[in-house]
Design brief:
Length: 439
């Protein structure tokens, strides 16, 4: 038996892609996945290029694998994902011991590429963009637990000035609605209770249906909510740009859709939003939130922020801070702007020094942390519906699960509760988790 070792960096889309890679390689029982890199004869790196550091990490990792290959020249090293798509042949130049470079849309061809390399002992590269082809190989996904991610669309057409995604994942394209529903219904039969609909811009979803119509995102959520066994629906990531009223209506009438929304705003300054080519203003964003609150009064909002975008003045930064307080964002992601070659923003003069950028990030993250803690404290004494995911890493006598607003709760319970929803009373609030008691 041959063993494969796979390392994945980056977003949930990459995690999902890696699960498809594993499935395609395990299919013919020729390969088996291993957690032990020393044991493997095929090493796969699924890469991310969203920020500089992610890219440099790739070559450091490959350097480590080079040593393994020196001891065993039979080892095949494959590099895929966003760095592979962007760098292409350059990867072979910088790391000539790499055998395969594959793209975000060609991962299903990996078994064939591996057998080619074995036969001919030649480099192999395929970073083309065959539309949705990879999904033809992904129906009937493996069950991973009581929650599952389902990719509903690929790529992005928004071309925000700082972002590489449209170049590495291609244009937006939606998977057929019926394929998605089929996949989810199989998962539901296998015990999945929570679905997370994945895509770079899920609210731009426009999937073809079997009768030649188009299914929009709001309708897709309604259809998923009708699948027996699925009791909780999340999605990642949506964009304020196409957050239309029909989606807000779903919040009004679909309780299975969680009261927690990740809606990246990036900055609280209209000047910076315009330089970022985000195509909305903070007033537009605020209007969406107001409508959401009227449809779902208990909704909590999280976001992504970029600090130190070229041209961001102290006043622009203060506007972001004020906006964070105004919306009362819950736990969020924040990043220092990273110049990505080939993006329009890389042409703008970067006038802020790193020390200042770090200071801004520190201030912003502190405020987010305080707000996150306030949201958690509000939960003290409340009853929460928790989907039990497994045995706690910290204490094997306890179970852990997730609340609707994405908090981990640990509690004492029976192992038969794993995979089920339980009602817990929240008895303790920690920084990164909560404690609860069964009701
Ligand atoms: N589709 C999502 C974004 C996906 S990328 C959206 O509409 O917002 C995930 C996050 O990475 C972005 O929200 C942004 O905050 C961050 N990011 C992307 N490119 C970046 C860059 N060049 N520098 C710093 N952060 C970046
Ligand atoms: Fe990137 Fe903007 Fe699309 S952040 S993923 S180009 S919406």
């Amino acid at each position: 038996m041959k063993y494969i070792y796979i390392k994945t960096w980056g977003c949930q889309m990459n995690e999902y892609d890696s699960s498809m890679i594993v499935k395609s390689l395990e299919k013919n029982n020729e390969y088996l996945i291993t957690e032990n890199v020393e044991k493997a004869s095929i090493l796969i790196l699924n890469t991310c290029s969203i920020r500089e550091k992610a890219q440099e990490k790739v070559f450091h990792q490959l350097g480590r694998w080079r040593k393994l290959k020196k001891n065993n020249p039979e080892i095949i090293i494959a590099v895929g994902g966003c760095v592979a798509t962007q760098e292409g042949k350059e990867i072979f130049k910088r790391a000539n011991y790499v055998d395969i470079v594959f793209g975000t849309q060609t991962l299903h061809r990996l078994p064939k590429m591996i057998s080619e390399v074995k036969k001919n002992r030649k480099y192999f590269i395929d970073i083309s963009f065959p539309k949705l082809e990879k999904f033809n190989y992904s129906l009937q996904p493996k069950k991973t637990g009581c929650t599952a991610f389902i990719s509903i669309m690929e790529g992005c057409n928004k071309y925000c000035s700082f972002c590489v995604v449209p170049y590495t994942r291609g244009n937006e394209i939606s998977r057929p609605c019926d394929d998605i529903l089929f996949e989810i219904s199989i998962l539901a039969k296998k015990g999945v209770r929570e679905i997370n609909l994945l895509g770079q811009n899920v609210n731009a979803y426009q999937g073809p249906t079997f009768n030649g119509q188009i299914c929009y995102f709001s309708e897709l959520i309604r259809l998923v909510a009708e699948i027996e066994g699925i009791d909780r629906i999340r999605f990642t990531t949506s964009n304020p740009l196409e957050f239309t009223d029909d989606i807000i209506e779903v919040y009004r009438d679909t309780p299975k859709l969680v009261s927690f929304l990740h809606l990246p705003v990036q900055s609280g300054s209209n000047k910076i939003l315009s330089l970022m080519k985000r195509s909305y203003t903070i007033e537009d964003y605020q209007f969406i939130i107001e409508k959401l609150i009227s449809a779902r009064p208990d909704i909590q909002i999280s976001s992504d922020f970029i600090v130190g975008f070229p041209g961001e003045s102290e006043i622009d930064f203060q506007k972001t801070i004020m906006f964070i307080k105004k919306i009362n964002f819950d736990m969020s992601f924040s990043f220092i702007y990273s110049n990505r070659p080939g993006t329009p923003a890389s042409e703008i003069k970067d006038n802020i020094n790193l020390k200042e950028k770090k200071k801004r990030l520190y201030i912003l993250q502190n405020i987010i942390n305080i707000q996150t803690m306030m949201w958690s404290r509000k939960m003290f004494g409340s009853t929460q519906s928790v989907l039990v995911e497994g045995i706690s890493n910290m204490n094997v006598m306890e179970l852990y699960g997730r609340t609707e607003n994405n908090r981990i709760v640990t509690f004492t319970g029976k192992s038969s509760m794993i995979g089920q929803f339980v009602n817990l009373k929240i008895t303790k609030i920690h920084t990164h988790s909560l404690k609860g008691e069964l009701i």
